[in-house]
Amino acid sequence: MERLNKYLAACGVCSRRDADKLIGEGRVTVNGKAAVIGSMVCGSDTITVNGKTIGEKNKKVVLAYYKQVGVTCTQRDKYAEKKISDQLKFPVRLTYAGRLDKDSEGLIIMTNDGMLIDAMMRGANRHEKEYVVRVDKEISQEFLEAMARGVRLEELSITTRPCEVKKIGKYTFNITLTQGVNRQIRRMSKTLGYEVKEIKRTRVMNIELASLKPGEYRRLQGEELQQLYQACGM
């Protein structure tokens, strides 16, 4: 047996303090009855928060989520108009495995598995991330070749790694990166005289955005999830 607020925190729902607030507001039930602050629970109890049943404590959750433009990858930034932690409605508290900037959209992996997050964000592992990008003027062959070779970013004193780039439209191209430099595609394009208008991430490692629409998510499981863990050496 353990205190309900501690149990909810261990499940990744929220902090203990926030759990007490939810309990006080009558938004938590235990075995169908409204919980009270200080309640004791065990693993066999049925616990709901806002009408949704909470999974087993420490059970790992991995989601593919379509982040919308205007949503910031942050947990507590009070200046962010739309935080990803508020936009993704899921009963377990999840964290993003790799950021996607506010002005970009597309696939982001959300999970409560800290080891998976660490493995995915380790730059030395060179995990692939694929994007579709629209720029402000017609794409030239010279631009594609320069992007693929790697671009010197003087403001960061680095040269980006070679990458795969393919033209898919007059103003659009597909690019696959293996590093996570802040606003990398925008910086690379700007250095070569192009302004990025839209960025959509369509793949992270073996996980595809597929048919997800903005704001939607799907839970990863089965072979797809197993391949992700294997690719991360887990």
UniProtKB/TrEMBL annotation:
Keyword field: Isomerase, RNA-binding
SMART domains assigned to the protein according to its UniProt record, in alphabetical order: S4
GO BP annotation list: enzyme-directed rRNA pseudouridine synthesis
Residues that span the membrane, as ranges: none
Entry-linked SUPFAM superfamilies: Alpha-L RNA-binding motif (SSF55174), Pseudouridine synthase (SSF55120)
EC number: 5.4.99.-
Top-level taxon of origin: Bacteria
One Pfam family, short name: PseudoU_synth_2
Domain RNA-binding S4 per the UniProt entry, residue ranges: 2-67
GO molecular function, one term: RNA binding
Leader sequence residues: none
InterPro entries the UniProt entry points to: PsdUridine_s_RsuA/RluB/E/F_cat (IPR042092), PsdUridine_synth_cat_dom_sf (IPR020103), PsdUridine_synth_RsuA/RluA (IPR006145), PsdUridine_synth_RsuA/RluB/E/F (IPR000748), PsdUridine_synth_RsuA/RluB_CS (IPR018496), RsuA_PseudoU_synthase (IPR050343), S4_RNA-bd (IPR002942), S4_RNA-bd_sf (IPR036986)
Family: Belongs to the pseudouridine synthase RsuA family.
Classification via NCBIfam families: pseudouridine synthase
Protein name (database record): Pseudouridine synthase
Species this chain originates from: Kineothrix alysoides
